[in-house]
Amino acid sequence: MPEIAAFLALMVTSDKPIVMTGAVKPHTAIGADGPGNIVAAVNTAATTGWSSKGNEVGIVIQDKIMAPWGTKKENNLFLPETRSLLGDIVDFKPFFRWLPGPCAPMKFDISQLSPETSLPEVAILHAQQDFRSGLVAAAIDMGAKGIILVGYGDGNWPVASGEEIKKMTTKNQVVIVFAAEGQLEYVANARIGIGIAGGDWSPRQLRYGSSYRFCFGPELVRKTYGVLS
Description:
The protein is of the alpha/beta class. 28% of the residues lie in helices and 22% in strands. It is built from six helices and eleven strands. The strands form three sheets. The protein has a five-stranded mixed sheet with strand order 1-2-3-6-7, with helices on one face. A four-stranded parallel sheet has the order 8-9-10-11, with helices on both faces. Strands 4-5 form a two-stranded antiparallel ribbon. α1 (2-11) packs parallel to α5 (203-213). The two termini are 30 Å apart.
């Protein structure tokens, strides 16, 4: 759900609020949460003072109101970081800590893309101490236009493979985005002297979003995610 919410936040411009919800338990289970989540989501969407035009898409589930960025789902739980928790649901009514703010540096229009448009390949690779740069080479050989490197902590990457990755991606004009695996980590700086810092976007959000942005050229990826290091 955070990935779809992030997608909508980047691509839908509307004067109306957009709120996503769902259910953790099936409707046949005791204590099914789906019906209550729908009521809470409708009440949240009816709150005056915000729209989805340049602002966040909201997620309402598990008695929380969340922004997509920095929210992850682990073990069937939605876990927002501090900045992503917009408010709480009490008796199916929203209590905002603050209204949704700007979602990303820019939105973009995909209406010009036809249904037959093939999305460019974007790979996700995870750090390990003996990471082999050949994995990056393999991704490039398979046509990857972008690679999400999921590092340690706040995006740290093993030095041993860094220089070779830098050479390969520069030569092949492949865009590198650095991400963090941890829930509370924020990637503020790109690593190995190249690439883009992924901030609090999850690896999957970065991958899905990058695939669409590459349809408009690599420069749009850089503008969307922030400052190129």
